[in-house]
Amino acid sequence: MIREFYIRDTAQVAKELLGKVLVHNTAEGVTKGMIVETEAYYGELDPASHSYKGRRTLRNEAMWGPPGYAYVYFTYGMHYMLNVVTGKDGEARAVLIRAVEPLEGIELMKKRRKMQNLTNGPARLTQAFGVDRSQNKVDMVNSNLRIEEGRDGSRTALTIVACPRIGIKQGTTEKLRFYVDGNSFVSKV
Predict the structure, then answer these.
(1) Domain extents in the chain
(2) Beta strand residue intervals within 42-159, DSSP E
(3) N or C of the chain: less Cβ packing under 10 Å?
(4) How does DSSP classify residue 114?
(5) C-alpha pair distances (Å), 57 with each of 60, 64, 92, 109, 166
(6) What CATH superfamily classification does 3-180 receive?
(7) Could you give the angle at the alpha carbon of 22 between the alpha carbons of 21 and 27, nearest 5°?
(8) 97 exposure class (CB count in 10 Å sphere: 0-12, 13-18, 19+)
(9) Chain centroid to CA 156: how far?
(10) pLDDT, tens digit (0-9, with 9 covering 90-100), for 100-142
């Protein structure tokens, strides 16, 4: 993926990430999965965003950075969430990667997860892929954690559903969650 892909409207990026492949190359091995679910967050304007009304903290500092970089945060005292920063540098916008369909490194994912439902949810995904706070602010264009074009470089076969975001209390009126219709790895239909 090229940086310019991320320097666009956040919802557009969220939709177009569907069908792309998340890759994490670690010392334990490589994991790959086709992105099948995302959510868009609009920074200062979005009541569900960590940077709503210009809130800037150590936790969300990565959101304010350049597009194409990872924003990884810890939540509920037990889970990591993986986002990719979008828009212009300083806008604090990001796309949450909610779910992927495993493609490669499935045995490693099973070892890390120690249970079923490998990647159908943002916390399961980060655990299966070995993503934690150490990947915060990593350049997802040129690093071991990155997003690549899909299997055939085409998204024509995907039917995309837009609906309100889930798992949050505010900012649920707009359709900013996107998923691949009929894919069994989507967290909730």
Answers:
(1) 3-180
(2) 70-75, 79-86, 93-104, 145-148
(3) C
(4) -
(5) 5, 10, 11, 32, 24
(6) Methylpurine-DNA glycosylase (MPG) (3.10.300.10)
(7) 130
(8) buried
(9) 21
(10) 999 999 999 999 998 878 999 999 999 999 999 999 999 999 9
